[in-house]
Amino acid sequence: MPNPSRRVLLQAGLGGFGSLTLPGLLRLRAAQPPATTERTAIILVWLRGGCSHLDTYDPKPDAPAEYRGPFAPLRTHVTGLRLTELLPKQAALANRVAVVRSLAHTGGGHPAGSLQVLAGDPDPQDKLKPVRPDFMTVAHYLRGGSPKGLPNYVGVNPVVNYDNFTIAGPGYLSANYAPFAVGGDPNAPDFRVPNVGTADASKAAQIADRAALRDKFDTFRRDFDRSGVAKTMDKFEAQAMNLLTSPTAAKAFDIAQEPAKLRERYGRNRWGQQLLLARRLVEAGVEIVTTELTGPLCGRVQNWDDHAVNHHVFDALKFRAPFFDQGVSALIEDVFARGLNKRVLVVVTGEFGRTPRISYSPSSGGGVASAAEGTTQPGRDHWPRAGSMLWFGGGIEGGQVIGATDRRGEDVTERRMGPHDFLATIYRHLGIDYKATTVPDFAGRPNAIVENGTALPELDARG
Questions:
Q1: Fewer Cβ atoms within 10 A, N terminus or C terminus of the chain?
Q2: Are 237 and 264 within one domain?
Q3: Residue 231 sits in which domain range?
Q4: Do 208 and 116 lie in a common domain?
């Protein structure tokens, strides 16, 4: 008989687990031996659509009116660092963060911009799906599984798509290294991550019975074991079993265990609780966490893509800023209060900035932060020539402003950070030799994970 496909085998071995066919459960990798020291971790907070740098981290109060926007700048305790009035809580913590004002690349569309930042793909044209793997996948591939038996890469409202475009993913690496995806609203009273832990003894027994079925496949396996598929199936089943029955995993994903006061500090809304869950996961041992701040808290079109046809850009920013400022500032405080600031690096960014010159167009529809259809309103469009990022933790020095743009926020004038500089900086934090490391493409050819990029020394924990 012909060798069965890997999908058939996985369905045969795990089909009895019901919803265990979730891609995340089958993408976990075999755990490496426990590390002798606590390993570094990263949280990526992704602002899909692109955040206006002029209205947040790079205000230009002296620019002409058609550029500067309506928000007043706030002074901080850090010389040269001003944020806008939309972010007072983050401004109060300026001594603990580094603001990079010099992100620049050539990807003007959302897919191309995302793939440039997350995967270092130099192509300025949009493509439907990635060819190169994103840095999260590469880190998962190179570092292996969590030493604590948890998924090593988790997406809490994961970074995956922009409309029908895939903006992040394994590319030419195996889909086994994609994230364990957590959907739903962590602020909902009945929130629970499916397929993680079970307190039901009868269900645990059923799971054990299903695992015992493997023994009945032994003869069948010998027909195709030369391909190694059976061994892979065993690993997937063992990892899925561990996740289903592990008290450690169940505890890590149970955000209800957090004190009510802390949950309120983050904000009893979806964004605040996503950020809290991300912190909870890295503290438990997950090493790569992404969380995307999108959905209704963004406004009518549910992302940061503030064209005038989508949103009144300034109304949209005013609407979402309280949730964003509260959640991110709480994460800053929490990372430091819990002693995670040396080990855990947090990066807040989107794919690019927004046009410094304000544009005006008729709204395509009324709703939150958007006037009635046909009403002319202000917007800002895509701007890959300049953008800002927020960095903290990871042992880096706080109270920094890195890079600069010109007086209108149009072009980078100091310390340009291209996509491969960004990737190199993250890989260095994760202990990956970005200058020498390669990963194989579909044909098995080695591909450098960073090309002509250099980690920013200002963001080096080693000083």
A1: N
A2: no
A3: 1-30+198-245
A4: no
pLDDT for the residue numbered 238: 56
pTM: 0.87
Least confident of 243-257, 287-301, 449-463: 243-257
By the 10 Å C-beta count (0-12 exposed, 13-18 middle, 19+ buried), 425 is classed as: buried
Residue 308 sits in the same domain as residue 365: yes
Average pLDDT over residues 426-453: 96
Residues 436, 329: one domain?
Answer: yes
Statement to judge: residues 147 and 213 lie in one domain? no
Exposed / middle / buried, residue 65 (Cβ in 10 Å: 0-12, 13-18, 19+):
exposed
Residue 454 pLDDT? 97
Which H, E and C letters describe the chain, residue by residue?
A: CCCCCHHHHHHHHHHHHCHHHCHHHHCCCCECCCCCCCCCEEEEEECCCCCCCCCCCCCCCCCCHHHHCCCCEEECCCCCCEEECCCHHHHCCHHHEEEEEEECCCCCCHHHHHHHHHHCCCCCCCCCCCCCCCHHHHHHHHHCECCCCCCCEEEECCCCEECCEECCCCCCCCHHHCCEEECCCCCCCCCCCCCCCCCCHHHHHHHHHHHHHHHHHHHHHHCCHHHCHHHHHHHHHHHHHHHHHCHHHHHHCCHHHCCHHHHHHHCCCHHHHHHHHHHHHHHHCCCEEEEECCCHHHCCCCCCCCCCCCCCHHHHHHHHHHHHHHHHHHHHHHHHHCCCCCCEEEEEECCCEECCCCEEEECCCCECCECCCCCEEEECCEECCCEEEEEEECCCCCCEEECEECCCCCCEEECCECHHHHHHHHHHHCCCCCCCCEEECCCCCEEECCCCCCCCHHHCCCC
User: What is the tens place of the pLDDT at every residue in 392-428?
Assistant: 999 999 999 999 999 999 999 999 999 999 999 999 9
Phi and psi at residue 404, to the nearest 5°: -160, 155
- pLDDT higher than threshold 80 for residue 236: no
Backbone angles phi, psi at 179, to 5 degrees: -75, 155
Q: What percent of the chain has pLDDT over 90?
A: 76
Do 233 and 268 fall within a single domain?
no
pLDDT for residue 346 is more than 70:
yes
Shared domain for 265 and 236, answered yes or no, is: no
Q: Of 177, 210, 245, which residue is a domain's last?
A: 245
Is residue 329 in a domain? yes
Domain count, the chain: 2
Among the residue ranges 29-33, 262-266, 345-349, the one predicted with the least confidence is 29-33
